[in-house]
Amino acid sequence: MRDMIEEYSFGRVRIHGEVHTSDILLQGDRVLPGWWRKKGHGCSLDDIQEVLEPRPEVFILGTGSSGLLRPDPDLERELAALGIHLVAEPTAKAVLRYNELLRNRKTIAGGLHLTC
Asked: Per the database entry, which stretches of residues form a coiled coil (predicted)?
């Protein structure tokens, strides 16, 4: 099986052969481009609500190349209350994990911050 997310570098990700240069949300193998958050380098439950139905087992948050995007302090607890495990890590690692979980047929969603 070919990886869904084919390449990531600062400010750029290639998925299904299409290049994206702004932050994205992911739901399984679906891409929702142009992801904006209420607080630029923060991520709240409201920011990811549109990819939580159907409910994923895991939400992968790519925090940027340097990890500057931070989940809000309550996000992990709020997702856990919904039965969703949060994994927040720099985007390069998040891309690898997302592909791995998708290959293993996990129900997943994610958000990738492509820059800092």
From this structure: none
Q: What is the pLDDT of residues 71-100, one digit of tens each?
A: 999 999 999 999 999 999 999 999 999 999
The string of DSSP codes covering the chain is ---SEEEEETTEEEETTEEE-S-EEEETTEEEE----SSTTEE-HHHHGGG-SSPPSEEEEE--SS---EE-TTHHHHHHHTT-EEEEE-HHHHHHHHHHHHHTT--EEEEE----
CA distance 25 to 53: 13
Say what the pTM is: 0.96
Which sequence spans correspond to the domains of the chain?
A: 5-112
